Amino acid sequence: MSPDMDDIGPFRVSQWLQPMGVGIGYHKETFEEVFIKTERMASTLDHEATILQTLSGGIGIPTLYWFGKAYNQKTMITDALGPSLEEIFDRSNRYFDMPLVLEVASQLIFRLEWMHSHHIAHGQLSPFSFAMGASTWQTPQVILADFTNVNSSQFSTKKDLQAVADILVYLAIGPPSWDLFQARKPSLAEIPSPLKGFVSIISDREMNPADYIILRRYFHTARQSLPGRTILGGLGSPQGEKLSLKSLASKSTGDLFENLGSKISTVGDSAGDPKAPWGREQAKFLLGSLNEIMTIYFVLLMREKPSQKRRHYHMGVYHLPNRLWRDLRWYLCMAKCGSLPLQRLIVLTIYKYVGVLLEVIPVYNRYWTKILSDAAYEQMKLDEDCWRMWRDAWMYWKNCANLLTKKDM
């Protein structure tokens, strides 16, 4: 494959990376950045594409945008991703404090829960299997990024759970490399206390659906008892982003609300006639502004999240989650002026964003699950190829929202 071959279906290649067979690009109409993988890089693309399509709608699962033949090679196009968990660990001087390890732990269990609920086990998990999100607001989310070596012929939850336990212990004790850690794993006595309980829980057992909720609650409880940094400041931001979480976190709440109001006002002016179709530059600006608005909201929500007291769950119309949903619904209405690919992208972006909030600010999960249900329903109507998967996601989040609402009654 030569670098001048730059069109693949509705996508354009920006750069081929070494080794050849992997590249980055963007959708020619929606401008979203994507990751491109050909069979020169991996001979399992059919299998990987099938798995990704099956797992559509999962939080922290890459979106499969296109799979087919380009330049006589099978080619798969998915979400662009940030650095791997191993790269982040290395950049952090091979040290994650325990609060950060526990926040990562809850997300890794969530990935297994969704994957195993679809009767898929990975079997080869490592710190290289996970990556951070590419958007600024998605950098606190751990993505299950690599499905190259998945062996779906043997389904076992045990091996994946033991692999996650190894990854967490590895992040907590900081050995020189993953290979050295695998060569000499610590004994139970050497494992840090919060992780020792997890290792004991999963020892020599397969999991049922209720067990994953117990495990996530275990990590959440352990995290609440420890002071320290959150995942917001612990994993960095993508290079070249206009807004970084750290820079926004240094601003006052008043300044953030002022920035938010100014940005929304500018978007309203740029949107123009609600019945007129978007032009190319107009669409590009509105999509970029959506990411900026969501990033500002993310920092505000992290700053002002309430305590765990039940009375704080019941909010008025002007509280942040409701205000956020009002602005996101406004974007969904505006998206109807765009093409079908633009509508899909806006709904999918909102879905992914609320998925991050679900994991990072779980105190509002009653509201996040309702928004996820609504967004999945919209995506189901727009995505004919994956409508069954999105229907399943819609029903899953709808049931979650109903259960959480009953608990609050």
Automatic annotation (TrEMBL):
<protein>
    <recommendedName>
        <fullName>Protein kinase domain-containing protein</fullName>
    </recommendedName>
</protein>
<dbReference type="InterPro" id="IPR050235">
    <property type="entry name" value="CK1_Ser-Thr_kinase"/>
</dbReference>
<dbReference type="InterPro" id="IPR011009">
    <property type="entry name" value="Kinase-like_dom_sf"/>
</dbReference>
